[in-house]
Design a protein that fits this description.
The chain has 233 residues and is α/β, with parallel strands linked by helices. It is built from seven helices and eight strands, in the order E-E-E-H-E-E-E-E-H-E-H-H-H-H-H. Bound molecules: zinc ion (ZN).
């Protein structure tokens, strides 16, 4: 592991580390991302950066509060940076106005490094599987990273995070029940009763990646039910 210090952190409260948050860099190259994450003017960092070839950089010591998640919420926690370790994966990310890119799959070497690093972090801080999340889970109103090509299933098979079993079919579609379930699982659902497309899409981007249209269906309901079962049991 290479150590490159970023100034973009401050002290944590004593609430304790509870989450592991995954991001993509959304920049053309790892070198550019490294410069940005270590530039005091950018005011963003993560604890770790992982290159496409699997090289891991330590940017901020885990004891510090790195600035990676911004305005975010999960369960009752409104300061995710205070309670999390953040990992940035080099990936061009999705295009947006003024930025052209090709969002691509995360290479095997990068995922292997991510799995080993995450296993260590989870062990060190006793992070629960349902507290291993994407930026898009804790900040779905603003963020879509690490996105639908991020292999959460592979991670879960290696003891990192949750992945649903697909046994629950023929579950009645009820957007009210779905929202209640999402809130129980941890999502911030305030103000979602009028328009749920975005939050459903964020959920699908993580847990039902083949179709993240934001339309609620029986399979999506079943996936949430299974995840809740895992969290409660
Ligand atoms: Zn992010």
């Amino acid at each position: 592991m290479r150590v490159v210090k970023s100034p973009n952190y401050n002290e944590r409260s004593d609430a304790g580390i509870k989450y592991l948050i995954m991001h993509y860099t959304g920049m053309a190259s790892g070198a550019e991302a490294l410069i940005r994450l270590c530039d005091a003017k950018s005011e963003v960092a993560a604890h770790y950066l992982i290159e496409e070839n699997g090289e891991v950089y330590s940017l901020v010591d885990e004891s510090h509060r790195a600035w990676h998640s911004g305005v975010s919420k999960w369960e009752d926690d409104e300061d995710i940076n205070d309670r999390s370790i953040g990992i940035e994966l080099v990936n061009p990310g999705h295009p947006y106005p003024g930025y052209e890119s090709d969002y691509v799959s995360f290479p095997g070497a990068q995922m292997e490094s991510l799995i080993s690093l995450s296993q260590e972090i989870i062990g060190r801080h006793k992070i629960k599987p349902w507290h291993v999340l994407g930026h898009s889970d804790v900040a779905w109103r603003r963020k879509i990273d690490p996105g639908e090509l991020f292999d959460w299933k592979m991670l879960s098979e290696n003891g990192v995070g949750c992945w649903p079993k697909r046994e629950n079919d023929n579950i009645e579609v009820s957007s009210e029940h779905f929202l209640t379930g999402l809130k129980f699982y941890g999502y911030s659902t305030e103000g979602c009763h009028e328009n749920q497309t975005e939050i459903i899409s964020a959920f699908q981007r993580h847990f039902r990646q083949s179709n993240f249209s934001g339309v609620l269906d029986s399979e999506t309901m079943g996936i949430l039910m299974d995840l809740l079962k895992q969290k409660i049991s």
